Amino acid sequence: AKSEGGGSAHAFTAQMRDSLQRRRLLEVDLRQALALREFTLAYQPQYDIDSRTLVGFEALLRWHHPERGHVSPGEFIPLAEDLGLIVPIGEWALRTACKEAVTWPLPLPISVNISPLQFRNPNIVSMVTSALAAAGLDPNRLELEVTEGALLLNSEPVMNIFRQLKAIGVRFAMDDFGTGYSSLGYLQKFPFDKIKIDQSFVRNLPDSGDGVAIVRAVSALGSSLGLSIIAEGVETEEQLSCIRQNGCLQVQGYLTGRPLAPAAVEALVAAEKAG
Ligand code: C2E
Ligand code: CA
Ligand code: CA
Ligand code: CA
């Protein structure tokens, strides 16, 4: 379709075919990636803005493909969810995060993402309990990040999973807050500990009046409900001072720290400990 120009139907279908083909090839490799030990975790630091102290890390999956190099989670996580592979891959991520966190020089909290498919599985409670025990990690240090897609408003089984994990000391953060349909409903129903303001609301600060209003409203909501609030995706000093001025006390973003390899995390925590 060389001579037909970018906008043609042929170019479009060629593009569709290429991306379908890439998806099929990735699918074959993704099925083997766990056995071939191609995953690692990167840890992104979270800070208290005023004191500049480290308050925790979020564990993020990384896939190092032998030929393609780094494949982004934005591409392989949805694929892993479609294939059901997110259940074993997510379990690997949780177990690994717990094991790595116990080696840190300070007992900081560790946040791990849990996909809806994992959270709907009744085995999640024993899986989390077993990961904590195997690592020897204090359950109070573990925070699970769930999106509202993982929850159901009137489901007793889902509520029970949430309650059982809370009962052993595990904390919960509502991830990507504000991007779903009924964030407030879920917040009222489930005993969350933290709200993560999605980066889509942060991206256009301080120019976006709506963004400012959202950060201010969510921060006020959090403080009246006794929840901590953290803003994601903060890349500039202007965004940082804007979220702070609007009541958000914690930050996670490229400005304050990119996701780090385990060795760099150890060094950062050691430096924090030394003061
Ligand atoms: P998320 O949970 O919302 O994670 C935050 C994403 O924002 C991460 O992307 C992080 O690297 C990125 N980020 C952090 N600060 C900034 C910033 O200042 N600017 C910009 N532009 N981006 C920033 P990443 O690592 O590519 O992960 C993408 C998504 O993949 C995650 O979004 C999460 O939904 C999913 N994911 C990653 N690891 C896991 C996992 O272990 N389990 C599950 N179920 N999902 C995961
Ligand atoms: Ca997350
Ligand atoms: Ca998020
Ligand atoms: Ca997200």
TrEMBL record:
<protein>
    <submittedName>
        <fullName>EAL domain-containing protein</fullName>
    </submittedName>
</protein>
<feature type="domain" description="EAL">
    <location>
        <begin position="23"/>
        <end position="273"/>
    </location>
</feature>
